[in-house]
What does this fold into?
Amino acid sequence: MGNIKIAPSLLAADFGNLQRDVEMVNKSDATWHHVDVMDGVFVPNISFGMPVVKAIAKHATKPLDIHLMIVNPDQYIQTFADLGATNLTVHYEACTHLHRTLQAIKVAGMKAGVALNPHTNINLLEDIITDIDLVCIMSVNPGFGGQSFIANTYDKIKALKALITKKKASTLIEIDGGVTSKNAKALKDAGADVLVAGSFVFKSDNPTATIKELKEIAG
Ligand code: DX5
Ligand code: ZN
It folds into this structure.
């Protein structure tokens, strides 16, 4: 207990005051900055690209947890390493040669993450789980902040936890989408190590206090 990681999603930040919001996360109880990159092809939305990631990196004092919702992520691995990413997460559904992609992320000096869409079964990771540093279970369909949490996520967390234990892997379990103070404790109890929260943090009256609240509730 007491070791849940909170990763505020800057997708919900005020982009006109991005430095202020990054600095808020720096000073908060958050562990990572979650950075959502969308290409308008893999998901039906475009968020921001490299110049904005560079601006975030300039002000961030905590590790950058970069979530790529893009096709062909392989072509940008070195770019994100150069931008200072600590974790680079690619989508299972976007990678034909996932093993090769994960090795390339690690060779570039980053932790390798794999995100799963809500319809993608945990068992598909059975032959690769020991190569994955972090699995991001999408608890909404990727592309937008502010959506409702999908309840089937709890069963997926438990199945993933069982797979990690069975394979003696040290993979972290991250939950992304619709995280609030209402489900944070149940997610932690199901086996989550990292909670991403966008709207719940940045649309609250006091984002710093909301991050602290999430951390304390989840424990
Ligand atoms: C969704 C993104 C999430 C998003 C979460 O595609 O991957 O990280 O910002 O936002 P909330 O917490 O508002 O559901
Ligand atoms: Zn995300």
About this structure: The mean pLDDT is 98. The pocket of zinc ion (ligand 2) is lined by residues 9, 34, 36, 67, 176, 196 (CB under 6 Å). The longest helix spans residues 153-166. The first strand starts at residue 5 and ends at 8.
